[in-house]
Amino acid sequence: MNALVATNRNFKLAARLLGLDSKLEKSLLIPFREIKVECTIPKDDGSLASFVGFRVQHDNARGPMKGGIRYHPEVDPDEVNALAQLMTWKTAVANIPYGGAKGGIGCDPGKLSISELERLTRVFTQKIHDLIGIHTDVPAPDMGTGPQTMAWILDEYSKFHGYSTAVVTGKPIDLGGSLGRDAATGRGVLFATEALLNEYGKSISGQQFVIQGFGNVGSWAAQLIHESGGKIVAVSDITGALKNSKGLDIPSLLKHVKDNKGVKGFHGGDPIEPSSILVEDCDILIPAALGGVINKENANDIKAKFIIEAANHPTDPEADEILSKKGVVILPDIYANSGGVTVSYFEWVQNIQGFLWDEEKVNNELRTYMTKGFKGVKEMCKTHNCDLRMGAFTLGVNRVARATVLRGWEA
Ligand SMILES: NC(=O)C1=CN([C@@H]2O[C@H](COP(=O)(O)OP(=O)(O)OC[C@H]3O[C@@H](n4cnc5c(N)ncnc54)[C@H](O)[C@@H]3O)[C@@H](O)[C@H]2O)C=CC1
Ligand SMILES: O=C(O)CCC(=O)C(=O)O
């Protein structure tokens, strides 16, 4: 299902549960601003290449818009729109003073050299620099981007507006990045999983996990879950998939991935079909790659009892219905992966204050936010007699709706 159709459907269900006025509902759905830019760069061989970049700024009722920038061949306007909207509800669920935005460039970063990626990022920044800013819209990394991408954006933006560290988050530490941001989304996934399992009298230790995606989020989640006693029995990334029912040796796998740029070829597990990763035997499934991967085609075959959505919109609404009938509990993206944007917020606060927190403080604050977020979601589940996805959506949408009305923008 199209990502925007799916996201709008979840929003509308939440709006109905909250009894939102139809005019307010419409105004919350329409993005504040949609930017589409052409980015032409010289390739290393001297030829020219053009790419299309997007930044969708969805809502700013609760504060500056916030969200990552994705470099991936499948980036398209509807998906960026959906991801921007999800950021609005996510920052509200996390109760941090932001709205939502998302950006992306349709490109395959694996096929571009470092200098081509730098030129592309700088051209993209030249096209959008007037529309982002510390109190307007603050980008961060997402799939296919990372601290170096943020460093280039910061440098290019600063040529126009003066040196301004807080204009992006997820930066390298040497440029004002926060300790703990790199691990934050994975650490948030760990805290969210602990909060959920606690409801069922369970803990991470002894549970069997399967993780799809072994990039920033998937690999940190794997490392932290492994350190907490969880057994990771299968993983996949773009290079392949492997399993070991006795539990993968995660420290060795992390080293292999660093040296080989992917999980393929790791000797501590048996190769499996990448398409079968989501239906492998496990207690807890963590999608940490692309959207829409859990759908009506595979939902019936999923064996996990819990799904923790580390990726954004990994589950189609049709799959939600099938899984709910099977009794599978899904911890939704707008809560489960909110650790990244929460520590981005800590980074922005530190930059504005000109002060650096130690990592322990970052991680402790993150735990506090994730715990409060879970409580908030559960309360909405009780109030509206709904599942965790609608609990999170009603929590987020209600906070944004209240801010919108208070600011007198609902008409
Ligand atoms: N980086 C962050 O702080 C946050 C990321 N997310 C979401 O988490 C997900 C992963 O993001 P990152 O880890 O940052 O990206 P990344 O670029 O660091 O890693 C992506 C991983 O997914 C794998 N992958 C790509 N296509 C795949 C496929 N077809 N099958 C299996 N694996 C595939 C890649 O090989 C890589 O291991 C995305 O949905 C992103 O929007 C959500 C919140 C914050
Ligand atoms: O750290 C951020 O500002 C945004 C991270 C992000 O893109 C996401 O949560 O999906």
From TrEMBL:
Report the protein name in the record: Glutamate dehydrogenase
The keyword Transport appears for this protein: no
User: Catalysed reaction(s)?
Assistant: L-glutamate + NAD(+) + H2O = 2-oxoglutarate + NH4(+) + NADH + H(+); L-glutamate + NADP(+) + H2O = 2-oxoglutarate + NH4(+) + NADPH + H(+)
Q: Which segments constitute the Glutamate/phenylalanine/leucine/valine/L-tryptophan dehydrogenase C-terminal domain? A: 178-408
GO function term, MF aspect, one: nucleotide binding
Site feature (Important for catalysis) residues: 142
Residue positions annotated to bind substrate are: 66, 90, 344
**Pfam families to which the protein is assigned, alphabetical:** ELFV_dehydrog, ELFV_dehydrog_N
Keywords noted in UniProt: NAD, Nucleotide-binding, Oxidoreductase
Please provide the Gene Ontology terms (biological process) for this protein: L-glutamate catabolic process
The Swiss-Prot or TrEMBL record describes its family as follows: Belongs to the Glu/Leu/Phe/Val dehydrogenases family.
Location of the active site: 102 (proton donor)
Amino acids binding NAD(+): 185, 216
Q: Which GO terms describe its cellular component?
A: mitochondrion
